[in-house]
Amino acid sequence: MVRIALYYILKIISKIFCLLPEKISYAIGDAIGAITWYLVPAKRKKMAVNNVILSLNIDKPSAVRIAKKSWTKFGPMIVEVLRFPIMRYNMNKYVTLIGAENLDEALKLGRGGIIAAAHSDNWELLGGALAQNGYKLVGVAQEQSNHGADRFMNEYRALIGMYVMYKYDVRNMFKMIAKGWLIGLIMDQDAAEDGIVMPFLGRDASCAHGAATIARHNNAPIIPIFIVKGPKRTHKVIIHKPIFVEKTANKHADIRKTTMIITKQIEDHIREYPEEWFWLHDRWKSVEHHQAIKSYTEGDKQNAK
């Protein structure tokens, strides 16, 4: 009952934020981000700061500033999601696409495509900006344990033009790509035992290989796309040149090689915009805790013989 009620509570809050002036809405979002930073457990903050230091090789004060900003951005991000019902009518006021010709070039092949994105800035807005600019996009979501929150988020993703699909629905992903759609995948989280172990920001991490696997199967392009903050509450969606899987007889090696290229693009983005990335996610946990398996890498060596 409580889970169902949350959906209606979020809808009411969304209605309020849509009625409030934009400046007041963002001011509330800034306050939420600043206040909730002090509620983050000290252990989680320490982990984030250490990860920044190890990844970027910077001093502690700078690392604390980056970790804090990567959290406080969630206040305005939440506000923007709550304001989707009105933002959708004038999306280009808030988001500028940079490098759209790269995406158009990839789609001209007629094979659909896979977007390789990251938890940078407001990643929910990234999908909406593409959809509102006429791109047919499937937003691949992680099903939430709270049904009310899950229903709300998927409804708002659909509201701004995305077709929503859960990440376990792989068969339908293949079908949608075959129809020429874009599949949006977030590629920067710890993939645990399902991933491929490779260097990420200087340390071994378990990296998701879904984009490379689907692209190899469908001969589809992979387009790295990230969103970053722009001036005066705006955002920029940066669209990179497409990546293609070099298909050989060694499937595992192909997937690993392509995943390394994607991972390098994500690394480069994070180094350029460190405050935009979500450092409070324990990105290296499965390798550090010996939960990720390295058999995939070993299999590459055996198959290459």
From TrEMBL:
Domain of life: Bacteria
Transmembrane segments: none
Alphabetic keyword roster: Acyltransferase, Cell inner membrane, Cell membrane, Membrane, Transferase
Keyword Secreted: no
Protein name: KDO2-lipid IV(A) lauroyltransferase
One of the protein's GO biological processes: glycolipid biosynthetic process
InterPro entries named among the record's database cross-references: LipA_acyltrans
An example Gene Ontology CC term for this record: plasma membrane
GO molecular function list: acyltransferase activity
Entry-linked CDD domains: LPLAT_LABLAT-like (cd07984)
